[in-house]
Specification:
Number of domains: 2
Shape: globular
Protein name: Glycerol-3-phosphate dehydrogenase [NAD(+)]
InterPro entries: 6-PGluconate_DH-like_C_sf (IPR008927), 6PGD_dom2 (IPR013328), G3P_DH_NAD-dep (IPR006168), G3P_DH_NAD-dep_C (IPR006109), G3P_DH_NAD-dep_N (IPR011128), NAD(P)-bd_dom_sf (IPR036291)
Number of helices: 18
Keywords: Glycosome, NAD, Oxidoreductase, Signal
Radius of gyration: 22 Å
Bound molecules: nicotinamide-adenine-dinucleotide, SN-glycerol-3-phosphate
CATH superfamily of the largest domain: NAD(P)-binding Rossmann-like Domain
Enzyme class: oxidoreductase
Oligomer: single chain
Order of helices and strands: HHEHEHEHEHEHEHEHEHHHHHHHHH
Number of strands: 8
CATH topology of the largest domain: Rossmann fold
Catalytic activity: sn-glycerol 3-phosphate + NAD(+) = dihydroxyacetone phosphate + NADH + H(+)
């Protein structure tokens, strides 16, 4: 028969462990859960092997993740665009503009030279907005070591190609590379301040997801794992568009009932699209689905929500975009999403409706005002709340 310890294999996939746990007798289930907990608490200790990270993009999220690694004394090199920014980080251990009130650990360096950042990197974190990622990655591709895994943090859908980061990485850096997609409610400032944050690392390689969980995890940054890359990427992209709608609801002063209804229906649209693209339903109820949607729709730090608030208060889109130094990914993604929905509907010969996503796109195009968008949502024919997908 199977030896009692066989249910726990360090590095084994959470999925296979889950399957085996479900079938195991009670005593073995308890023993396995204890062993799993021991494994998780080991992840808080210093690593037993040397690693070095390259972080692509010196914006607030790249800095925030660098700060997590820096607190674990892991060497990190951040690739930035401007020489004066690199010099400032190396001299003062803080970014001159982003999160400039937060000191970075001495193990964090910055450079403008891709070869310097990428040479000898054991892991690469990609933190450049989706719309700029293809060009950025094409430019640095010759310097990206062949087998180094990439952890993408960018949330959105590329204009024109309708690609998400998995395809952009494949098309720019080639096949046969392990990749992972980090997502969930994770505002850069809160992470950099050491506030408790939980995210999910999705990868087709369960070994990579587990490694990220061990290496990046600490007592305030908890990394769950998943193999559902599509679900995690779609959740991260759609929540930014729903957050723009939630911001408009706030800006219009519509109240809590309206906000709760809007966000719930937004999650419903997110789930329907994700399922039609092959995601697992449970992913969309997790951190990268409703979790990130709640965080972004209700959190005052969200750039997407704040864009919506300003639109709802009557400000012009050009003014809002012109006054921001950081990217609200939901703006471009709203247009890509509508095209992706139309493509998916055509492929399945059906007419699934996504009134919130379409409404945000039309408001961003100037075809409706936020108040008209809401009026149109209320005028839609009433139907069953949940469709069988
Ligand atoms: N900021 C957050 O709280 C947060 C949290 C989770 C995920 N994300 C995601 O991470 C990604 C990066 O977010 P961020 O807040 O750091 O973004 P950001 O707008 O600050 O930009 C990040 C960096 O990307 C690079 N960059 C920007 N425009 C570029 C261009 N045209 N060409 C080349 N490089 C360019 C720059 O180094 C810039 O500092 C986004 O997709 C975002 O959705 C952000
Ligand atoms: O500031 P936002 O709206 O880009 O959101 C940041 C993160 O994605 C929140 O998880």
């Amino acid at each position: 028969g199977t030896p009692p310890h066989a249910a726990f294999v360090p590095g084994a996939s959470t999925k296979s462990l889950g399957n085996r746990l479900a079938k195991a007798p009670q005593a073995r289930r308890e023993q396995t859960i204890m062993q799993l907990s021991a494994r998780r608490s080991r992840s808080m200790r210093p690593l037993p092997y040397p690693v070095r990270f390259a972080v692509l993009g010196g914006g607030s999220f790249g800095l925030a993740l660098a700060s997590v690694l820096g607190k674990k004394s892991i060497p990190v090199t951040i690739l930035v665009r401007k020489e004066e920014v690199a010099e400032h980080i190396n001299l003062h251990h803080r970014h001159p503009t982003y999160l400039s009130d937060i000191a970075l650990a001495p193990s964090i360096r910055a450079t403008v030279h891709p070869e310097e950042a990428l040479r000898d990197a054991s892991f690469i974190i990609h933190a450049v907005p989706v719309q700029y990622s293809r060009k950025f990655l094409e430019d640095i591709a010759p310097h990206v070591p062949k087998n180094t895994p990439i952890i993408s943090t960018s949330k959105g859908i590329e204009t024109g190609t309708l690609c998400m980061m998995q395809d952009i990485l494949l098309e720019t850096l080639g096949p046969n590379r392990e990749t992972a997609y980090l997502s969930g409610p994770s505002f850069a400032r809160e992470i950099a301040l050491g506030l408790v944050t939980a995210v999910v690392a999705a990868s087709e390689s369960e070994a990579l997801a587990n490694e990220i969980c061990d290496i990046m995890g600490c007592n305030y940054f908890r990394v769950f794992t998943s193999t559902d890359v599509v679900g995690v990427e779609v959740g991260g992209a759609v929540k930014n568009v729903i957050a723009i709608a939630a911001g408009m609801c706030e800006g219009l002063g519509l109240g809590t009932n309206a906000m709760a209804a809007l966000v719930t229906r937004g999650c419903n649209e997110m789930q329907r699209l994700a399922l039609s693209l092959g995601a697992r339903p449970s992913t969309l109820t997790g951190l990268s689905g409703v979790g990130d949607t709640f965080g972004t729709c209700f959190g005052p730090l969200s750039r997407n929500r704040n864009l919506g608030v300003r639109l709802g208060k009557g400000e012009r889109l050009e003014n809002i975009l012109g006054s921001s130094t950081e990217v609200a990914e939901g703006h471009a993604t709203a247009f890509s999403l509508v095209q992706l929905i139309e493509k998916t509907n055509r492929a399945y010969r059906r007419e699934l409706e996504f009134p919130i996503i379409y409404g945000v796109k039309e408001i961003l195009e100037g075809k409706r005002t936020p108040a008209e968008g809401l009026r149109d949502l209320m005028a839609m024919p009433v139907r069953v709340e949940m469709w069988n997908l």
